[in-house]
Write a structure and sequence with these properties.
This protein is of the alpha/beta class. The protein has nine helices and seven strands. It binds xylulose-1,5-bisphosphate and magnesium ion.
């Protein structure tokens, strides 16, 4: 049996519920700034989350939900420019402290660091979105807590492809068997499983009803001693929140 050496974290939906009140608002503000009469309400955005990546999501929306949208001459450049506007709005929301960490994230991070284990990030969103979220919620030095931050377009295929996790493992210099992944969605789960990683799921309102087959544990939050999780699949013993002991038991397959 390998030894647990690194914990690899998804960002959106896992560390913070960034989608409904963060990315979605930023997309809508970008559409308004660009003079587009597009508006992604909560329900529509939930459908659009079937596609990872903001640029890919814009393309998906225009193709699948707009009849006969006339693309500008250089479609890729136009989408990239629109996505940059969106990212600027998203960073603004982060900077205003509008997007807090989910329950238990800081507490588990503190345990992991005290235990001397490595942490990494593997996310579809952009690197700036990651570092701004970390700075805004955990403080300026927190990006240094992560041995690797694998984010956005550094890989050719986004989740559910395993590329971003494989890239993170390569940079960590570790095997999948020495790590465990934390995700919130079935697309993220497929990416982590595809890279050979045991995975713990903390679902959220957008992903609650997804199929998490293959996950070691499915809970509705990591939680804390006074904010326990709801166990949805897998074994957690007597634990009521996700602490490092439970992570180690899940990793070792000894949670009963
Ligand atoms: C979630 C995503 C991202 C965000 C939007 O990433 O699919 O595309 O929805 O961010 P993950 P961008 O769950 O892997 O963290 O617009 O920067 O893509
Ligand atoms: Mg996610």
């Amino acid at each position: 049996m390998s030894e647990l050496k690194a914990l690899i974290f998804d960002v959106d939906g896992t560390l913070a519920n960034t989608e409904r009140d963060g990315h979605r608002l930023a997309f809508n503000r970008a559409f308004e700034e660009a003079g587009l009469n597009w508006h992604w309400d909560e329900a529509l955005y939930g459908r659009l989350l079937a596609v990872t990546g903001g640029k890919e999501r814009i393309l998906f929306y225009a193709r699948e939900f707009l009849n006969g949208f006339r693309w500008p001459a250089d479609q890729a450049e136009w989408v990239a420019d629109l996505h940059q506007i969106k990212t600027r709005h998203y960073l603004g929301l982060l900077g205003q402290g509008m997007i807090p960490l989910r329950s238990g994230v800081r507490e588990l991070f503190d345990e992991i660091r005290a235990a001397g284990l490595q942490m990494a990030i593997a996310t579809t969103t952009t690197p700036a979105n990651v570092t701004y979220l970390l700075d805004a919620t955990l403080g300026q030095g927190s990006r240094g807590w992560f041995s690797v931050i694998a984010a956005g377009d550094i890989v050719p295929a986004k989740k559910p492809a395993p590329d971003i996790y494989l890239w993170a493992l390569e940079k960590l210099g570790l095997k999948a068997a020495e790590c465990i992944a934390f995700e919130d969605s079935c697309l993220g789960l497929h990416a982590a499983l595809g890279a050979g990683l045991k995975t713990i799921i903390a679902s959220n309102p957008y992903t609650r009803d997804e199929d998490f087959s293959g996950a070691e544990l499915v809970i509705d939050k990591w939680g804390t001693s006074d904010d326990g999780f709801q166990l949805m699949a897998g074994e957690a013993g007597l634990a009521t929140f996700l602490n490092l002991d439970l992570v180690r038991e899940i990793y070792a397959g000894t949670a009963i």
